[in-house]
UniProtKB/TrEMBL annotation:
Its EC number is 3.1.3.12. Removes the phosphate from trehalose 6-phosphate to produce free trehalose. GO terms for molecular function: metal ion binding; trehalose-phosphatase activity. One of its GO terms (biological process) is trehalose biosynthetic process. It comes from Desulfosoma caldarium. This is Trehalose 6-phosphate phosphatase. Belongs to the trehalose phosphatase family. SUPFAM superfamilies: HAD-like. CDD domains: HAD_TPP. It catalyses: alpha,alpha-trehalose 6-phosphate + H2O = alpha,alpha-trehalose + phosphate. Pathway: Glycan biosynthesis; trehalose biosynthesis. The keyword Chaperone does not apply. Its cofactor is Mg(2+).
Length: 276
């Protein structure tokens, strides 16, 4: 972690781009159980106060939900894997074909009829996307219900307007033409010359890793084990991410680039490695 920290802390201008589930907060059995740990809001608040630095949360969750989970005034937010975007204190911009959005309403109803009688499924309606979670379902039912979910999507949605995403125990239908890579490129375009650091754990973060890598930034996969990825660095888990962020804040503060007082969040020991 030391080489990462040294490079990041030396930057006068930087952009922290942080995934939520699996990166800032450990994966939980259900989406509603993945709450910010004590100290996360405080840590993010301090980070948004670093002069010359911006902080964004780039998530598959909606911007509305991110604002509820992380009430931090200075955060940029990207929601629904890039289909939503909001600057601090501003309204939500959505990238979504109106025909897709209208058709999605019908899919939500049909998918609800499919999933409701089944054990262990959670349907997450994001307005511009629809996720079917199967973390707590029997594997055989997950496969069968998943197949029927995709079939329903093909029936209800206009061709070319949507994409199917397979994430961590979730299938998600989202608008075509949106991904975290494009969203991150859009954020960085507003702050040319800043050092971008992206932290993420899931397949949808790979698009963002590639964008950040192309722009000379730092990409960090959050995973206890190495796996094929575009990220050149790895941290084991969200505790290590918090540790990194807390240390970054301290070092920027020491060089006159941060606020006052030390972050009070708790984090565990060390242990990270460069991938490959
Ligand atoms: O881009 P992210 O911030 O990582 O969001 C990705 C998805 O995260 C959530 O689902 C995942 O986390 C849940 C809570 O830990 C877990 O129960 C589920 O199995 C995971 O897939 C969220 O509910 C989705 O909307 C996000 O797209």
């Amino acid at each position: 972690m030391e080489d990462l920290l040294a490079r990041a802390a030396a930057a006068e201008r930087g952009y922290l781009l942080l995934d939520y589930d699996g990166t800032l907060v450990p994966i939980a059995a259900r989406p509603d159980l993945a709450r910010p740990g004590p100290g996360l809001v405080e840590l993010l608040t301090r980070l948004t106060g670093m002069p010359g630095w911006q902080v964004a949360v780039v998530s598959g969750r909606t911007v509305e939900e991110l604002r509820r989970l992380l009430p931090v005034a200075g955060l940029y937010l990207v929601g629904v894997h890039g289909a939503e975007r909001a600057a601090p204190g501003e309204g939500v911009e959505r990238i979504c074909d109106p025909a897709f959005r209208e058709a999605l309403r019908h899919l939500v109803g049909a998918a609800d009829e499919l999933a409701r009688p089944e054990e262990g499924f959670v349907l997450e309606d994001k307005g511009v996307a629809l996720a079917l979670h199967y973390r707590q379902a029997a594997p055989s039912r997950a496969a069968e219900v998943g197949r029927r979910f995709v079939r329903l999507a093909r029936t209800h949605l206009p061709p070319g307007t949507w994409r199917l995403l397979g994430g961590k125990k979730v299938l998600e239908i989202r608008p075509a033409g949106t991904d975290k890579g494009r969203a991150v490129a859009g954020l960085l375009a507003d702050y040319p010359g800043t050092l971008a650091l992206y932290f993420g754990d899931d397949v949808t973060d790979e698009d963002a890793f590639r964008t950040v890598r192309r722009q000379g930034g730092i990409e960090v996969l959050v995973s206890p084990v190495a796996r094929p990825t575009a990220a050149r660095y790895r941290l084991d888990n969200p505790s290590r991410v918090w540790e990194f962020l807390g240390q970054l804040w301290v070092r920027r503060a020491e060089t006159g680039g941060g606020g006052q007082g030390l972050p009070t969040h708790k984090h565990k020991g060390r242990g990270d490695g460069r991938v490959g």
